[in-house]
Design brief:
With 290 residues, this protein is mostly helical. It has three domains: 42 residues, no CATH class; 121 residues, no CATH class; 93 residues. It is built from 14 helices and no strands. Helix 4 crosses helix 7 and helix 7 runs antiparallel to helix 8. It is elongated, with a radius of gyration of 26 Å.
């Protein structure tokens, strides 16, 4: 039934207990069979009630804006109000899925196939891949968002009494990360000793290092540098300081002169090539959907 707060509530457990209490002294075989059925399914009724009665926005979950800004500081041009709304919708949709799943109305094999859940994840993806945010900011934001969503699923597992058969948390988190275009750091990239004064994250260094080892002309290096430094903030220093560091490395091509500007070094082929590498190293920018 619909409660005063606009959410549905389920009285199954209460009805079950009232029936058991009211009929416990009956000696009719049919009633005894009915009572046995109720007792056998009491746990199932309780799980249905928990899912139907679930209210999103639990005080046990840290507010998403506070959780992210305490780690990253303020983020210019990012709308936390919209993100909070979409995460509220995601939480509510997950509970709705299990309410219908427990009743037997849904036969979807995985929770993220439930259309409201998929729509919420798609909306979150749009927000965290904003072109107003640098690539490094996007990656930090996604990293923290995945941590927050994992805690949300921990909360749902406990509150709704979900078994591993009901909910494969690792599978869901892997899907969520892929859906928002986030590639968690591997143990190798976490442990790598990279120049933190030059690159904003390990993946940025690994990507540039792979290109610099093979690049045979300054135009390619100029494009990669200008894009990573000016457009995506993955390289920190300006041209002179970067070339000073670069020329101290053992790369086959030196950078003795100022790198070409972004517009002069740009080509569609280079953009396509670097886009592919961005995806490979978990630095992909979301493309507009057709």
């Amino acid at each position: 039934m619909l409660g005063f707060d606009g959410f549905w509530s389920s009285p199954l457990t209460e009805h079950c207990e009232l029936e058991i209490e009211g009929l416990k002294n009956s000696e009719y075989p049919e009633i005894q069979n009915y009572l046995a059925y109720l007792k056998q399914h009491k746990k199932a009724y309780r799980r249905i009630d928990r899912a139907v009665d679930y209210r999103p926005g639990s005080p046990e979950l840290i507010e998403i804006e506070r959780f992210i800004t305490e780690d990253m500081g303020s983020i210019t041009y990012f709308n936390f109000t919209d993100l909070d709304r979409e995460l509220f919708n995601l939480e509510n949709s997950l509970a709705r899925y299990y309410a219908q799943h427990f009743i037997g109305e849904l036969e979807l094999p995985v929770v993220y196939a439930f259309p409201p859940v998929a729509d919420s994840i798609k909306a979150v993806r749009h927000l965290v891949n904003s072109a107003y945010l640098s690539i490094s900011t996007q990656n930090d934001l996604k990293r923290l968002l995945c941590r927050w969503v994992r805690q949300l699923t921990n909360h749902l597992i406990y509150t709704l009494d979900l078994s591993t058969g009901d909910f494969d948390q690792e599978n869901f988190m892997q899907h969520f990360a892929q859906a928002i275009h986030y590639q968690p750091q591997s143990s190798t990239s976490k442990a790598i000793n990279y120049p933190t004064a030059i690159f904003s994250c390990p993946q940025a260094y690994l990507l540039f290092h792979a290109i610099a080892q093979k690049a045979d002309n300054q135009t390619t290096l100029s494009y990669v540098y200008r894009r990573m430094q000016e457009k995506d903030q993955l390289i920190i220093p300006r041209d002179y300081d970067f070339r000073t560091w670069y020329n101290q490395q053992d790369y086959p091509r030196s950078l003795d002169y100022t790198t070409q500007t972004f517009s002069k070094s740009f080509s569609k082929e280079r953009e396509f090539f670097v886009d592919l590498l961005y995806e490979q190293y978990g630095l992909a920018v979301e493309k507009k959907e057709a």
